[in-house]
Structure formats: structure tokens, C-alpha cells
Design brief:
alpha/beta; 2,3-Dihydroxybiphenyl 1,2-Dioxygenase, domain 1; four-stranded mixed β-sheet; 2 helices; 8 strands; 17% helix; globular; Glyas_Fos-R_dOase_dom; Glyas_Bleomycin-R_OHBP_Dase; VOC domain-containing protein; VOC_core
């Protein structure tokens, strides 16, 4: 069977610029493609890629659009606080061995960032 090599979530927004700027300036993503005329931007940080797609009727999940595993969730949380990011759920330790937080990016999408801190119970 074929090996899966990557996955990229596509987030729908009404305006590319504020979302791309936030992902680049606050979360440190690199902009690989930015084609406003086509309504598409592709960003990447480490092994995580996101597609930002302009659409007249953007859909935003009622929960998180994705979960990004990180090596230093406390450091990332502190960085996001210092940049006044819209944190909708603060740092939380879960009984299943994860510590995470959720932020809302421009365009309304919520992304969770978390770190494994112990075994699942």
C-alpha cells in the first residue's frame, strides 16, 4: 500500500492578507506561495503546512480546524500571549497525556497547539 507522506489543511477565509500575515509574523510560518489573484497562499513551518484559500463564503469549524503537535507548548503559549494572539482556550492538561491551548487566527479558524506530557490514562 502507498505510504502517506503529508497532509495540509486548507482554511477558507474572506481575505488572505490578515491570515497570512498572522501566520508569518506571529507563528513563524514561511510563505511558500502567495497568489492573491488566485485566492491562494501556502505556508509552512517545520513539517506543518497550511493552505489559505479565499472564498466568498468561508466556512469555519465550530471546533478546531486542526491540532499541531509542538515540542515546547509553554514557550509557544508565552510567545502568543506576548504577541496578543486571540487565545480562546488557555493551557490545559488533559488526563490523556496532552497539554495544549487553542488560538483563533484572523479569518476565525481555531487551531490547537499541544505537547505530549505523559502517557494516556
Amino acid at each position: 500500500m502507498a505510504e502517506f507522506e503529508s497532509y495540509r489543511a486548507n482554511l477558507e477565509v474572506a481575505d488572505l492578507t490578515p491570515t497570512v500575515d498572522f501566520l508569518r509574523d506571529v507563528l513563524g510560518f514561511t510563505v511558500e506561495v502567495n497568489e492573491p489573484a488566485m485566492g491562494l497562499a501556502l505556508v509552512r513551518r517545520d513539517r506543518v503546512g497550511l493552505g489559505i484559500v479565499r472564498t466568498p463564503n468561508p466556512a469555519v469549524n465550530e471546533t478546531t480546524a486542526g491540532y499541531v503537535g509542538v515540542a515546547d507548548v509553554d514557550g509557544l503559549h508565552a510567545h502568543c500571549v506576548s504577541r496578543k494572539a486571540d487565545i480562546v482556550t488557555g493551557l490545559t492538561e488533559h488526563p490523556w497525556g496532552l497539554r495544549d491551548f487553542v488560538l483563533r487566527i484572523p479569518g476565525g479558524h481555531r487551531i490547537a497547539f499541544g505537547q505530549r506530557i505523559g502517557p494516556a490514562e
